[in-house]
Task: structure prediction
Amino acid sequence: MSAIDILLIGKNAAEAKQKNPKVINATLGTFYDEDKKMIIPFVKDKFMQIQIDNIFPYGTTNGGDTFKQNILNWVFDQTKEEIETHFKTDVIATPGGSGAISIAFNSYTNPLDSVLISDIKWRYDFFTNAAKIKIEDFVLFENTKFNLTSFHEKLQKLTEQQQKVLVVINDPCHNPTGYQLSQNEWEEIINIMNQYHQNEITLLLDIAYFDYDPEGLEKTREKFLQLKKVLPHITPLLAFSASKSFSMYGLRLGALIGLFQTEKQAEYFKKHAYEDALGKWSTAPSVGIELFNEISKEKETYKKIITKITNQLTKRGNLFIQEASKQNLKHYPFKGGFFVLIPVDDPLKCYEKLVKEEALHVVPMKEGLRIALCSVTKDEIKQIVHKIKKTL
Ligand SMILES: Cc1ncc(COP(=O)(O)O)c(C=O)c1O
Result:
């Protein structure tokens, strides 16, 4: 199956829903509450308070010092001090988490290199195609666990082929499966990468959904402290998505965060990440930066709001797993987040059948059908399980 355009599939589903209210749209990675409301009232209030004079002028390429401090405070929170004692940090504002991924792929690889990503993954192929690089897949699962053997084999292969190796890990709440690495798996991944000190390794952590970690805001941030174990030949980069964390999808804000153990790494980021942004979009939209800076003034209030959203999401996830087990519908290992993935033999055919016969829109991927738990109600979840089971 060639790369799929999830946004287009989502647009078709939204159009079908307008024509027929019975349509269930479980396509897009956008959070809707049980009343089908997407915009978070707190975020809307803050948006209304933005000073227009602050958003019409050009911003700066990195997003400015206030943005940098606010991002570091939001992403690392209680672990910030410890992280900053161990690493020098830098931040660049980007249009969505997508912009952060795009910079990492362009700036931290050589032309025609391959990057290491799991076989089951989000649509990173659009970014690698744009950066004129390739993907080396490792097998994500061995039974219900992260496949460390495949990860190690493929990393070894790449370290022999090329000097620079970029590794992508999308955790927690992996898209599309909802898998979550255990503490032990994280330690092993770092141990494996630490062995290849003759190479320059970039660890791109795609944390688009980390604020929805079912283990909570504090626990998910504690996991960042594992990064203190990486040796200096590894540069951890974090791709943050404000789209997901604040339901501000269309405003296009994200950030690429660099953690450095050497001056050379810090200088490299300053030059290459900045120049890549300058060559692509110059500055991220000021409106997103300003809104994020406003929200940051009441960070503690927003933490309570997002915790409630995560609880709703967790309830949906639990319900799905419960219904699926009742109806004997298989799914890939799932722990939480926006999506769950159902293995099917012919995803495209199954998708078409579900649309035509069941008015159910999901995303067909190479390995199965992706269900966006984030965008459906608890009632719809029961129907989704039933409809898929019936169609298989
Ligand atoms: C795994 C993953 N990473 C990154 C992104 C980028 O999000 P955005 O560019 O909208 O912030 C997404 C969006 O769906 C995603 O699913």
